[in-house]
Amino acid sequence: MGNANPGRRVTDVDFLERLHSVDRPVLVFDGATGTSLQQMDLGPEDFGGAALEGCNENLVFTRPDAVQEVHRQFLEAGCDVIETDTFGATSLVLAEYDIADQSFAMNQRAAELAREMADRYTTPEKPRFVAGSMGPTTKLPTLGHVDFDTMKASFAEQAEGLLAGNVDLLIVETCQDVLQIKAALQGIEAAFSKTGQRRPLMVSVTMEATGTMLVGSDIAAVVSILEPFPIDVLGLNCATGPEQMKEHIRYLSECSPFIISCIPNAGLPENIGGIAHYRLTPVEMKMQLMHFVEDLGVQVIGGCCGTTPEHIRALAELTAELKPAARAVRTPENRHARPLLQGEPSAASLYGTTPYHQDNSFLIIGERLNASGSKKVRDLLAEEDWDGLVGVARSQVKENAHVLDVNVDYVGRDGERDMHELVSRLVTNVNLPLMLDSTEWQKMEAGLKVAGGKCILNSTNYEDGDERFLKVLELAKAYGAGVVIGTIDEEGMARTAERKFAIAQRAYRDAVEYGIPAHEIFYDPLALPISTGIEEDRLNGAATIEAIRRIRSDLPGAHVVLGVSNVSFGLSPAARIVLNSVFLHDCCEAGMDAAIISPAKILPLVKISNEHQQVCRDLIYDRRRFESDQPGAICTYDPLTELTTLFEGVSAKEARASGPSLADLAVEARLKQHIIDGERLGLDASLDEALHTYPPLQIINTFLLDGMKVVGELFGSGQMQLPFVLQSAETMKAAVAYLEPHMEIIEGESSAKAKFLIATVKGDVHDIGKNLVDIILTNNGYEVINLGIKQSCEAIIEAQLKHQADCIAMSGLLVKSTAFMKDNLEAFNQANITVPVILGGAALTPRFVHGDCRAAYRGQVVYGRDAFADLRFMDALVDAKAAGEWDDHSGFTGAIPDGVGLSAPDPAESSIPAPAEAKQELAEVDSPSPANSTTDSPAENQINDHRSATVAEEPALQPPFWGSQILVETQIDLEEVFTYLDRNALFAGQWQLRKTQQQSRESYGAMLAEKAEPVLRQWMQRCLNEDLLTPRVAYGYFPCGRSGNAVVVFDPANHERQLGRFDLPRQRSGNRYCVADFYMDLAEDASGSPSPTDVLPMQAVTMGEKATEFAQGLFKADKYTDYLYFHGLGVQMAEALAEWVHARIRKELGYPDPATLELRDVLAQRYRGSRYSFGYPACPNVADSRQQLDWLGAKRIGLTMDESDQLEPEQSTTALVALHSQARYFSA
After folding, report:
1. Is the pLDDT of residue 67 over 60?
2. Distances (CA, A) of 432 to 242, 372, 376, 899
């Protein structure tokens, strides 16, 4: 452990010795320090004053007894390691309390307090250790919140303080940004160097419920990025419970070379009354972590948020019972050699990993972002067109590059600044690892300081001796990068195979000795031109290929990379493509496993004729022919001349070949592909051809349905987006319609697989999800009875008794719809209905369906995640019935097929947030009221109606008019409203063009640009040309005032007469916000009656009934894709219109948006004030919209509310508006 202070511990056993001892114990960390401190009822004076309240770290000075009491509780519970109270004790965080200068002293004091307690409990049998806690700060360097050097210095200062206080190890925890981890590790290494001490290092990352770190890194990227660093333990903590960590821990078990830690929360947090509650009991946590230890080899466990001493006691009991599964891990003895053990060498972007070894390929390094070789890049740099440069990078993603070479070397420019500016944009816009390419190490380091991923440095060599060679190795080691080494030494570039290999061998020895393992070395044996005609260049190609062969055979583990296109320098574009392709092939045959190329300028060998291949190889291996062997003999065959002649006048495009078309396929495969591609061109001709051989029903049930089955699989795996699924469904519908006249129809018989009855339940007008199910099942051979929206229980029962459907499906988007579903199930029992029932909709969770709903129904209840989940169940049901393996009461009597919605709920699923529309009622329906809460104290249960201390009264604004006005479509510029359209919500939410886990951000963006944007432009134009949307607005200004937790509204024509009030909830903790606080308190008139003091803007908007009718017409006409596109656009345009009106109100009240305010800033609410729609947590009572509509006179624009509190037309919304400077969204 290095130069540890002698005598600093009661025992001589250190942390790593304990972990790596023969019995390999499982060590237990303590629990949640914050949770424990919160239970002590500490007040402002305990923290050192109101300005420091909440700064737990300062308690080491003001209440050291409280800090040591937390340590004592966890030590008594049996933990092996306690963490110092320094999670936020960097100067970066302490600066927010104006005590940044206390960082060193605070960390030292915290370590001393923990040291004292740990030594008090240490015994030879059970040594106790102190971990110096280093939290993530409040800054994300990847997003530009702080520069790398500032963050590194902050962590270095913290580490020095912790070392001065004699901690046993350092833990960098709750990490949300891999670049932050790199800064922390460099800061710690600086502290180790300065103090002459070293301690074990532990890194703990936080994977959100989304499956990635906060900045988007997945667990594979984390391992790849951190593998090069001298850490001892790598694991997870915070954000979720152990269940959601399972797959991440499994990956660490299989791929990480480090000891694994798992320090979860006590389950997923649940918001109850504005307070996070954690449900996982000590026994439940113990049982879940048992699997991690026993099966996955986790050796360090503990507790994060919500864990108490009782949780830690349960974990301590676990360690006495179990031993971790055996895993190969790095030890202090082999740390320098960096054995990969079970992993594989790779580079990584911020988001994902790219293995160096590519199956059936070489590592493709895109070469086009290179100022040294591209005029376009130089021009973009000169103009500082960073977006244009990012576009060049993205284009290489489409060309299937694996790594992106980045070179900004351009005479006369500040290369370090250029590298910083470009790389900082690339890392968040391009999902490819970066190869930082420069002859100057300072430029490479500028890129490394903003690149969170694992880069490759290109390059180093011995041209200037050992100093520069080792400087680049130093960078590679400090930042965890791979390195390219060119075969250049003090004598210059090596030309012969012997010299190339000799330089590579020298570099191999030096690099491995320095601490760069062979698997991180890429040799560049230099592809020098063979196209010049100069005699000494003739053997360049053959020498390079032979050097590759020697390096790969004699320098084990190392890689070879080549800038392939250099070999053809000076030839025509067509000749270059062919020569480069043949040279690339032969280099790969010799062992080259990476190449810097433009993939678009390479051809597969099968597309190059044998004649052209032969000429190229003759050139590569210098197979010229001469009249004789005598010096000066005349050359009779020069392959360079031959190649130049062959491609004279040939364009690069003509040098390429194309693949097979749809017409090349056999008719059976062609029909299937028609469905998969959604391609209707040529469909009728294919069907006619098939009818010569097959009956129409066989064509449908075999070839066409096979295509739909593939579509379902592609959708389920995330490889096909919903609009393209609907294109396939339209093609299927057209094919069936074409075949129907050829089919023999027997009276009373149906060719459908089964009957399926579906309805949106009472009080719910949302039909898009239901209609998608109709589309998918209808086009997969089922007869669907679609009852429509707002269907009562009686109507559903009547339809079922009439049609005798094999399955009933109920859909609903609203939370209250789920209550109707449960009631309907109980009514089905009374009607003796027993067929399986599928429940689907955004407000449902698997837990609710599998628990409450199954208990309410005598038959089987199925959770329908999406249309294809319903299809999987129906296919399984039909098969089971045919095999006699289905019973309505007990379900599948044989094996239950996978993915049919009848398995036990996945706890992770129940935590997935509902879409925004479903969230509107969550607070009203799901949140416990003060009266029924069992977790709050009696004092907390009392209604608090005092104004929030953080929201002071502000002077009332003067409205342009009192009362309401309406705006109709002739007064609203629809093109201007389009500028407020939230494309992300439209594309991902309404059109369901969502990024898949396998898809990079760049390819997703490219897909939207290619597929979604043209469709949007087309529909926007149709809306303008055909008046499909009829935007109308009712808005106005009403006198008001605050009364406790209510906004009292007065008559605009008579300010003495009250119209009514909005009673609103208040947060129970934190800032204790209430919407009412954003208005001035009521005054009293001379008679003592309340009088208004402020103005309440209100708005109601709609896209009109015509939009609803047109969408329904598209659905009935089987225009499924158009239905999805237009319906979604209508919904989002209502939101856009609401934004447009809100901006109008801000302007009329004296706070116009600046001209520079972009849409993303509007959507992020970067303007003054806020608007609040009923149904959201801050104003949850949806029924309050009724009086609001009445006051605004919304019937004038055709906007009403039905008996179930639903706005009609569907594409409508209402809101209250507040212009207070503190008004923001919040959950009450």
Report:
1. yes
2. 31, 21, 21, 33
